[in-house]
């Protein structure tokens, strides 16, 4: 269930995309993206040495707007679903935390003339669900996790002449997602992302003056 605050954020984001599209006139291109997530968790203090932490393999999918601001410089806001979390193994016990987010980054992007690009910027994430799995027992733990997470994504990509592209990114998590008073445990999720995207071309007739 999407909260009222999340609905407001999604509406404001859509309005922002629309406004930037008007201001950019014919300098905006929309696109779709999807790919693989490899999420890992950094904990403080460190977990006991007999706990083997492993990544959660998930996926991401969403939309973006690529807005040219200068000759080689663009701003790229996005909105996408991301499955994150981790898996821990201690002895014969396997525990998982599966977290699902709607992430909204705003990236500054530098484009080289050969189709390659580098990017970085802030990202805010809205928690959709959080479920713990201990052996065969599943529990909803969303109320024990913070509803908003901040991170800094940075990465690189390549856009081919036909509009199909490749992208690799690392989202450095900044927020302790544990929301429990009195707890001295800190856990931050960071995610490697690898994927494909398609950037729709502008209508050439509209770009003519």
Task: Please tell me about this protein's structure.
The protein is mostly beta strands and 209 residues long. It has two helices and ten strands; from the N terminus they run αββββββββββα. It has helices spanning 4-24, 204-207, and strands at residues 28-44, 51-68, 73-90, 93-111, 116-120, 123-134, 137-140, 148-159, 164-173, 186-199. β2 and β3 form a beta hairpin. The longest helix has 21 residues, at 4-24. The chain is elongated and about 55 Å long. The chain starts with a helix and ends with a helix. Residues 205-209 have low confidence and may be disordered.
Question: Short summary of the structure?
Answer:
About 10% of the residues lie in helices and about 60% in strands. The protein has two helices and ten strands, in the order αββββββββββα. The chain has helices at about 5-25, 205, and strands spanning about 30-45, 50-70, 75-90, 95-110, 115-120, 125-135, 135-140, 150-160, 165-175, 185-200.
Helices and strands, with pairings:
Layout: H1 4-24, E1 28-44, E2 51-68, E3 73-90, E4 93-111, E5 116-120, E6 123-134, E7 137-140, E8 148-159, E9 164-173, E10 186-199, H2 204-207
Antiparallel strand pairs: 1-2, 1-10, 2-3, 3-4, 4-5, 4-6, 5-8, 6-7, 6-8, 8-9, 9-10
What are its keywords?
12% helix, disordered C terminus, 209 residues
Give me the secondary-structure category. Answer: mainly beta
Mean pLDDT: 85
Largest sheet: 10 strands, antiparallel
Low-confidence stretches: 205-209
Q: Would you report the number of β strands?
A: 10
Shape: elongated
Oligomer state of the chains in this structure: single chain
Number of helices: 2
Residues in helix, %: 10-25%
From the alpha carbons, calculate the radius of gyration and give it in angstroms. 19 Å
Strand content: over 45%
- Please report the distance between the alpha carbons of the first and last residues: 47 Å
Order of helices and strands: HEEEEEEEEEEH
């Amino acid at each position: 269930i999407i909260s009222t605050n999340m609905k407001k954020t999604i509406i404001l984001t859509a309005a922002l995309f629309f406004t930037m599209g008007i201001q950019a006139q014919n300098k905006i291109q929309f696109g779709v993206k999807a790919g693989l997530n490899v999420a890992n968790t950094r904990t403080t203090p460190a977990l006991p040495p007999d706990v083997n932490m492993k990544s959660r393999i998930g996926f991401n999918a969403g939309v973006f707007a690529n807005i040219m601001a200068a000759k080689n410089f663009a701003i790229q806001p996005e909105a996408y679903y991301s499955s994150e979390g981790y898996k821990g193994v201690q002895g014969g016990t396997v525990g998982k935390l599966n977290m699902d987010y709607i992430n909204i980054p705003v990236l500054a992007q530098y484009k080289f003339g050969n189709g390659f690009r580098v990017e970085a910027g802030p990202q805010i994430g809205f928690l959709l669900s959080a479920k713990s799995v201990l052996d065969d027992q599943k529990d909803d733990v969303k109320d024990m996790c913070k509803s908003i997470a901040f991170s800094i994504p940075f990465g690189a990509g390549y856009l081919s002449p036909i509009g199909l592209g490749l992208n690799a990114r690392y989202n450095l998590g900044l927020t302790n997602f544990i929301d429990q008073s009195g707890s001295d445990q800190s856990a931050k999720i960071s995610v490697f992302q690898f994927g494909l995207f398609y950037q729709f071309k502008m209508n050439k007739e509209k770009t003519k003056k």
